[in-house]
Write a structure and sequence with these properties.
This protein is mainly alpha-helical and 157 residues long. It is built from eight helices and no strands.
Length: 157
């Protein structure tokens, strides 16, 4: 679950809102079973390449060969090297990522709230022009009870 959660969060680009996260499917394969496999096909099978990459006892020359075969593994290795170099650097990276996501989420929420305010403004104008609350509800999608409550607030203010 830990790795799935990490994979899920990495599915969002810097500065994007959380709602843009896409569905993630994980297939959990036991590395010991792969280690016992006699016919490994790292050249023709990308899953085998990745499982080989996760082998902590992988000799340096085999790692270099994997990196040459697969650009995704090359990027993963570069990121791993960068983030594992310094714990403070990794903490800063995580904090920045979180801040960017939170900022995007706040912007999205503010836009949604602005749309709601706009809908109530339109509803108020429709009511002032003489339209029935039930019709206003149909056109705006705002529940009748909410409309009555908001319109009553307007009268008080």
């Amino acid at each position: 679950m830990f790795y799935w959660g990490k994979l899920f969060l990495e599915g969002i680009k810097k500065g994007e809102d959380y709602v843009s996260l896409s569905k993630v499917i994980t297939i959990n394969i036991e590395v010991p079973k792969f280690k016992r496999l006699h016919n490994k096909d790292v050249k023709g099978n990308s899953l085998h390449r990745w499982l080989q990459f996760f082998n902590k006892d992988l000799p340096e020359d085999e790692l270099k060969e994997l990196i040459e075969m697969d650009t995704a593994i090359k990027r993963a290795k570069a990121t791993l090297d960068y983030l594992s170099h310094d714990k403070k650097e990794y903490a800063l990276y995580q904090a920045r990522e979180n801040a960017l996501h939170e900022r995007a989420n706040m912007i999205s929420t503010a836009k949604a709230e602005g749309r709601e305010e706009g809908k109530f403004e339109v509803a108020k104008n429709m009511y002032i022009s003489g339209m029935e609350i039930e019709k206003i509800s149909q056109f705006t999608g705002i529940k009748v009870e909410e409309l009555k409550k908001e319109l009553e607030k307007e009268r008080v203010e």
